[in-house]
Design goal:
Elements (H helix, E strand, L loop, with lengths): L4 E5 L6 H13 L4 E4 L22 H10 L5 E8 L5 H14 L4 E6 L4 H6 L7 H20 L2 E5 L4 E6 L12 E5 L2 H10 L2 E4 L14 H16 L7 E4 L3 E4 L3 H11 L5 H5 L4 E4 L1 H14 L4 E5 L3 H11 L3
Parallel strand pairs: 1-2, 1-12, 2-3, 3-4, 4-7, 7-8, 8-9, 9-12, 10-11
Antiparallel strand pairs: 5-6
Length: 320
């Protein structure tokens, strides 16, 4: 089994000092990575319904700053949206961060999902097959750009030629690539082309449209990865995030409150949900070990509000 790694998703910093302090704290507490998000909406109706808090910081400058004030912390975006960036420019920006951080970039990329955000920013939200096809071409471009060889890619979405990509990243053959998603096609693609497969949240219902519990749905998604990865599955990190998390001695009461916050979701469903981690440090350690054994998740990303409380979990499991 792959060793445990832990990351923090940072979404909130209202000053340069706050962001620098967060990056240093994440490093000092033993977390592997500080992730940002590729979302742009402040408060307003466009963000309604996503359960996603407003994002204070744009990703590229935030990643560069976090890398500059730390020495070992890895930095990344969980995950860049293909339609929010010019692909050739994003490849160069990412390579620059890897160079300037001396090889600490983790490059997350996805096909996009937030239709309301697309609309708010004046972007066309294409159908899923088209977005995944674009993702495939963008990943090919990024790898080609990072190789340092002459570029000559001519596809439906990417047409880049006549130059070599610079700078060449420090990490060879390329920085770790994280691809996230929930459907068979994108997870199979991630299994073949990524180094880290990020599992999107599973539904918050007892039984989904496929007749599966949340745990069974998570296992099915990892099955897609296993089938497509063939002999390289054991080399992949499988990443997931607890949307709801709390280190507490009052597990039942906390799950009740979370259920209410989730528009009366069943606490019994939340109790075993793959995107929920609630309990004492010992209970959470046991749950994560069980999930790695049964589902394969070894890379866990928590939200920045839980940095201090989850430090003990990180200390127990990181690297084991």
């Amino acid at each position: 089994m792959r060793p445990f790694r832990f990351a923090v998703q940072g979404v909130d910093a209202t000053s340069a000092k706050a962001w620098r302090d967060l990056a240093r704290k994440v490093e000092d507490l033993g977390f592997s990575t500080l992730f940002v998000a590729d979302h742009y909406l402040g408060p307003g109706p466009a963000g309604g319904g996503s359960l996603m808090p407003p994002q204070q910081l744009a990703p590229i400058a935030a990643m560069a700053t976090a890398a500059a004030v730390t020495g070992t912390l890895r930095v990344g975006c969980r995950v860049f949206c293909i339609d929010y960036h010019v692909p050739a420019v994003l490849a160069k920006e990412a390579a620059t961060i890897d160079l300037l951080s001396e090889g600490r970039l983790e490059f997350g990329i996805g096909a996009g999902w937030h239709a309301a955000e697309y609309q708010a920013m004046g972007l066309d939200f294409g159908d899923a097959p088209r977005r995944v096809s674009k993702l495939e071409e963008v990943v090919a471009l990024v790898k080609a750009h990072w190789s340092g060889e002459q570029l000559d890619l001519r596809g439906e979405f990417v047409e880049v030629s006549g130059y070599s990509g610079l700078p060449v990243p420090v990490q060879r053959p390329h920085p770790p690539i994280m691809i996230g998603g929930s459907r068979k096609r994108v997870l199979s693609f991630a299994a073949r082309e990524a180094d880290i497969v990020s599992l999107a949240n599973v539904p918050w219902v007892p039984i989904n449209d496929a007749g599966l519990t949340p745990q069974q749905e998570a296992a099915r998604r990892v099955g897609f990865v296993r089938d497509a990865a063939a002999g390289r599955f054991d080399q992949l990190d499988v990443e997931s995030s607890p949307y709801f998390a709390a280190v507490t001695n009052e597990r039942a009461a906390t799950l009740e409150r979370m259920g209410t916050a989730m528009r009366n979701a069943d606490p019994a469903v939340l109790s075993d949900h793959p995107n929920v981690l609630v309990g004492t440090v010992e209970q959470i350690v046991e749950r994560l070990q069980e999930r790695r054994e049964t589902i394969g998740v070894n890379y866990v990303t928590i939200q920045q509000d839980h940095v201090d409380s989850f430090a003990a979990v990180c200390a127990r499991l990181a690297g084991t």
